Amino acid sequence: MKVAVLGCGGLGRIHASIYAGMRDVELTGVCDIQQDLADDTARMTGAVAYTSFEEMLEQAEFDVISIALPSYLHKEYTMLAAKAGKHVICEKPIALNLEDAQQMIQCCEENGVRLFVGHVVRFFPDYINMKQALDEGKLGRACVAHASRIGGHPGATKAWYNEIEQSGGVMVDLMIHDLDFLRWSLGEVKTVYGLNRREELLDYALVTLQFESGAVANVEANWGFPGQFQTKAEIAGSEGIVMANSLKSSSLQIHKAPSASEASTFVTVPESPGFQSPYELELQHFIDCIRTGSEAIVTARDAYKALELAVAAIESARTGQAIYLPLVER
Fold first, then answer.
1. Distance (Å, rounded) from C-alpha 272 to C-alpha 168?
2. Is residue 305 domain-resident?
């Protein structure tokens, strides 16, 4: 299977390096409007570098494209790729609003291609184990959950994160990971209540979810935390509790010193000390789904529902009112 990568920033480089090491996969092109990023990724992987998506589409042969562009470009290039008959693996969030997300899903369906969205937390071992403990009944009836995801403000590295119209802010870009995980684990959400404080290089959000099952979850996300990136999660049930903490979950911890260029160019990407990275497991799973026609662990509709929760949280923070789901599609 032949694959191309659009966007050679931090996650784009990860996608490209993973594809380059996959058996039965050929990375035929990498593209970025910044020539140096495209050239560097090409040297790293052996692929051909392009600075124009249209040029890569015309000259490179590929079946699948990974879209690792800024969030506000996801819709445009997903639809261009779908209309060209390419399967799409798009980084999260699927889009910045529900109308765009629905149009992306519909466009891929109409053109007979698959759409996958990179909600990679579903492939992190700690989160898989928490979900499994709940599914196996080890916790009894789920009652309360907490999740947090905090780190530095990416706007200090990439200016587009500072524009709410381009990134969606901390709830759409960062908290959406935990919103997806909690919906995956606890089922559909009934109401959303959110609080948000935003100023220069600070975007903090606290959201409460009430599930149809009666369970309640509190979710925290923070851009602007002065320490290292970290995540925590716990699910408490009638018979037990399961917890994960990125700073304590493994006796093996890996801290990589960035190169001089990476320190100033790329946003921090969370890593796992497992033998295979969650990103590798995710991309291999998506490729296998294309090969076999099977349904993905996380579907495009799941990505839509995660975005719906983030949009509801933003609306609640704006109005001061709880938002009832589902939202009306427009």
1. 26
2. yes
